[in-house]
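Please fill in the sequence for the structure shown.

STRUCTURE ENCODING:
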């Protein structure tokens, strides 16, 4: 009888121990679940806070973004005009150099009466400058052509024609016409055309 009572008490203690362990396990799981929930809630709250801060910064930067877009539009609108102005300034400077070179390098007793440029060398080549005049001799025409070769804006100096004439009973002269290509006046060639030319060569 005593042994049975002792066994029952031992069984009760074991059962109570198991119950306590299960209770502690469930309590631990509840604590972990609650902790995980609050951690996730805090993490989400932090992300939402950062998102709101970024949205606020974007709203503050919106006027600057609109201003930048407006400036980009103005730049795009003015770029063609600026390119035209730069090209015009370049052409003006080129002509100033050419005319200055001609005026300082024309031999004595050689007079120019026509200066024109109205055609290209080929469809996209540089403009052709044509100079017509009168000289006291053929030698002066040759000297004039040699001096034109020293102009950095001209190339391929060619004599188109010469014609002797008599001014009076004691004086002879030579009418002449000289042509040259003006450097830097070529039309731009598209990339696909350049590639096609390379492939053919």
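FILLED IN BY: designer on duty
SEQUENCE:
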């Amino acid at each position: 009888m005593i042994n049975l009572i002792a066994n029952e008490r031992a069984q009760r203690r074991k059962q109570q121990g198991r119950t306590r362990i299960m209770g502690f396990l469930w309590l631990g799981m509840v604590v972990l679940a609650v902790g995980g929930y609050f951690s996730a809630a805090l993490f989400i709250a932090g992300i939402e806070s950062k998102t709101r801060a970024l949205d606020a910064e974007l709203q503050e930067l919106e006027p600057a973004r609109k201003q930048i877009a407006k400036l980009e539009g103005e730049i795009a609108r003015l770029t063609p005009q600026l390119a035209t102005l730069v090209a015009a300034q370049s052409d003006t400077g080129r002509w100033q150099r050419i005319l200055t070179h001609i005026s300082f390098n024309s031999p004595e007793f050689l007079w120019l009466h026509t200066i024109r440029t109205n055609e290209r060398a080929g469809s996209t080549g540089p403009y052709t400058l044509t100079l017509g005049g009168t000289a006291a001799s053929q030698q002066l025409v040759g000297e004039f052509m040699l001096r034109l070769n020293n102009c950095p804006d001209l190339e391929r100096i060619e004599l188109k024609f010469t014609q002797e004439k008599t001014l009076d009973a004691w004086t002879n002269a030579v009418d002449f016409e000289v042509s040259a290509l003006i450097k830097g006046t070529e039309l731009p060639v598209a990339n696909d055309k350049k590639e096609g030319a390379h492939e053919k060569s």
